[in-house]
Design a protein that fits this description.
This protein is α+β, with helices and mostly antiparallel strands. It has 2 domains: 1-114, 3-Layer(aba) Sandwich (L-fuculose-1-phosphate Aldolase), CATH 3.40.225; 116-271, L-fuculose-1-phosphate Aldolase, CATH 3.40.225. It is 39% helix and 17% strand.
Length: 271
């Protein structure tokens, strides 16, 4: 059996956690990632019939029974992932009862998955219905996106429109737009349910005064969505108090979207 520490999915988690910390998005133990894995690939590195212990999930995830995820740990610092993978990450499988996770590897200090795992799993369930290839849910605290929620209206259309105006690539990268939630208490099922509802329409959901959720087919896609929003939010914050002499017009946003053959949110443009 191959060394689990050399598994591509472990290396991906190691790399993206380190990158997100270096970006300044994941202070202290901020941020969490869940990545659904292929059972056949995992079996090359682990005895998937050997369960170390079981951990209650906190809600019924019966739609994901048997699915395997690698998940960041609760209270763990992204900056430490690269130095101690087995303590800061864990590989879990949703048990037959749907309410329990079976630990297959990791959390070796007795820890457990992020407290926001229910929110992640709720979003996985929704996104898989819209895209069977969805694999990743990523939550982080990008600085300028968070700052923007302090001064911008918290409305899906208005927030998306402002971000789309900041640079040409935005409507290309997320033509489906951005969902926005008002401030809510984190780490509970209520915010998870609200996020999952937004995920019916969007791959990106901003948590006002907190951070952002991104969904994708792989680590690169989820990270790239968030990275692009953050770049646009930085541009917005840099020019918010200045006169806007130039901007991308709605007719031009439409032209870009149609040039790329995108299924974009036409109702988010003012035409």
């Amino acid at each position: 059996m191959k060394d689990i520490l050399s598994a591509p999915f472990v290396k991906e988690m190691q790399s993206v956690c380190s990158n997100m910390y270096r970006q300044g998005w994941d202070e202290r133990n901020g941020g969490n990632i869940s990545y659904m894995l292929d059972e056949t690939e995992v079996a090359e590195y682990l005895d998937i019939n050997k369960v170390i212990r079981t951990i209650p999930i906190g809600f019924n995830a019966s739609e994901l029974i048997g699915k395997i995820f690698i998940v960041t740990g609760t209270g763990k610092y992204f900056k430490n992932v690269e130095y101690d993978l087995e303590t800061n990450l864990g590989i879990i499988r949703i048990a037959e009862d749907g309410t329990t996770a079976e630990l297959l590897w990791g959390y070796r200090d007795g820890g457990r998955f992020t407290s926001e795992l229910p929110a992640h799993l709720m979003s996985h369930i929704v996104r898989l219905k819209h895209d069977p290839n969805n694999r990743v849910i990523m939550h982080t605290h990008p600085t300028y996106t968070l700052a923007m929620t302090h001064i911008h209206e918290l409305d899906d259309k208005k927030f998306t429109h402002t971000i789309w105006e900041m640079c040409t690539e935005c409507i290309v990268v997320f033509p489906d737009g951005i969902g926005v939630l008002p401030w809510m208490v984190c780490g509970n099922n209520e915010i998870g349910e609200a996020t999952a509802k937004k995920m019916e329409e969007f791959r990106l959901v901003v948590w006002a005064l907190h951070g952002i959720y991104g969904a994708g087919k792989n680590i690169d896609e989820a990270f790239g969505l968030i990275e692009t929003v953050e770049k646009a939010a930085k541009l917005y914050m840099l020019i918010a108090q200045m006169p806007h002499i130039n901007t991308i017009l709605d007719t031009e946003l439409k032209a870009v979207a149609e040039s790329f053959g995108l299924n974009y949110r036409k109702d988010f443009l003012n035409l």
